[in-house]
Amino acid sequence: MEKILVCIKRVIDYNVKIRVKPDETGVVTEGVKMSINPFDEIALEEALRIKESGNASEVIIVSIGPDDSQQQLRTGLAMGADRAILIKHDEEIEPLTVAKALYEIVEQEQPGLIMMGKQAIDDDCSQTGQILAQLCSIPQATFVSQVSIEGDKATVVREIDQGLETLEVDLPAIITTDLRLNEPRYVKLPDIMKAKKKALDVIESSEMKTDFTSAIEVINVSPPPPRESGVMVEDVNELFAALKEKGLVS
Amino acid sequence: MSKVLIVADHFDGQLLSSTSKAVNCGSQISEDLDVLVLEKGSEIASQAAAIDVVKNVLSISNEAFEQPIAAIMAPVVAEVADVYDYILLPSTTFGRDLAPRISAILDVNQVTDIMSVEEPRIFKRPIYAGNAIQTIKISDGQKILATVRTASFKELGNANNANVIDTEMPSVEIPSHTRYGGVQSEKTERPDLQVASTVISGGRGVGSAENFELLYELADKLGASVGASRAAVDAGFVPNDMQVGQTGKIIAPDLYFALGISGAIQHIAGIKDAGTIVAVNKDADAPIFEIADIGIVADLFEFIPELISKLD
Question: Minimum mean pLDDT among A32-46, A69-83, B46-60, B242-256: which range?
Fold first, then answer.
């Protein structure tokens, strides 16, 4: 195939301890480390491996978000993507809107394969890939932990609740990636320098056909209810007694 | 009264408890609850008719539904959904795969992982692996499409005898671009992870696939199911379908044992709703102790045999 399109999202780094803002309008992002959504990074790694194995000639990365998302796109370019597109939009938007905007890019670029993470670790929605697949009327393979490309077909293994499912899909298709698919490469300094010269197109969301108005109202964001603090016991007998007291063993 | 449609999740001839939990969520919105069953035969429809509070079971039987392929099912659900105000699916891999394609066809935003119904159009849902809770409102006049976080709702009783309505397959195109190649599944006699009242999970600290035998032995003494942390699955000790956590299964047993699990936030996201969490780890500083109800610093290979003999 000619092109693979990989969709990446800028999110709070997965190692950061999330804090809810005191006014409950969201979570604290000021001064917090941001990264490529780890599932998307795995998708990009897989796309690069497909290209390196000779099954694709170009890897394009696309993101939707604030101007700072250029940092994550530059990281993606340093990993090895050939060029990047940023659809610049400052407010949070729902997956349906994201997918519609991505659909415009798909129409333009006509990729043979579209890849992204199975979910973003901020909103945990797990929707965009599937919505985009339906908008494009193409097959989807979600939660994928193994991919092999043969001509105009992809065979994948999906991690589902009941075990490992195998699917074969015609290309073009959308693959959303799970954690066990691969381990993304480390970016080396010379690659970061090289990435600065690669093309990164910025499109304002207002220039697109998609309506970016948000349709879901977020009333508030609150911390989860705390669990009551626990007790430490010394040995199995004490544990057994504690469980017995709660009626959990007889 | 609002009309609610729940799409049934089933596997290998069995209706899954996740369906009943989604019905429970629906019952907090309206009493007008129908379940849609897409299957090859008719056995799932009769199982769905037994779920308490269900009014009708719409049964569409077709060869195309032999396997749950989202691209095939979504246009069918979207057709049936036309007369409904709410379409709910369990937030299992089945529901998460299918629901967004329905969202695209109906052109309505989907709500992922409803954890509580505050008002008929106001819901709570977890974000950041459950480290924050979002309260959202869907504006009036819009159809509501959502997945239901199964750990937040109890399974209903099975004493009902709802109408089963054989429903004609809508005339939609059945794509042939996706071909099913089977599921590799571990057969086990132990209760299902998402249903079991007691779950024993092991982490990296268990050390090997062979050492997991000790956990199975303990589980069988307690009638428990066995789960694992991502680290244990990544290390190849156990298969992926045993993974508990943000990207595995989210469970709510009455009693949970975390054995040799350090307690990454992604794992904790999967067990927050457990009744009592017992943590056993030889590292006294393991973060799992911060959320455990009962903690014990011990060597697993001394602790587990001792507990087993105590249960004899």
Answer: B242-256
Give the count of domains, chain B: 2
Identify whether B190 is part of a domain.
no
What average pLDDT does range B157-171 have in this prediction?
A: 96
CB nearest B183 (choices: A130, A145, A162): A162
3-class SS of residue A176: strand
Q: How far is CA B294 from CA A238, B266, B277, B298, in A?
A: 10, 20, 6, 13
Amino acid letter, residue A120: A
Count of domains in chain A?
1
Helices (H) and strands (E) in chain A, counts: 6, 13
Closest by Cα among A49, A47, A157 to A113: A47
Give the pLDDT confidence of B196-208 residue by residue, as tens digits. 899 999 999 999 9
Residue B81: domain span? 3-166
ipTM: 0.95
Are both B142 and B248 inside the same structural domain?
no
Q: Tell me whether B83 touches chain A (CB under 8 Å).
A: no
Helix (H) or strand (E) holding B105: helix B93-106
Contact B259, B226 (CB under 8 A): no
The answer to whether the CB of B66 falls within 8 A of the CB of B173 is: no
**Residues belonging to chain B:** 312
In a domain, A227, yes or no: no
* Distance in Å, alpha carbon of A241 to nearest chain B alpha carbon: 11
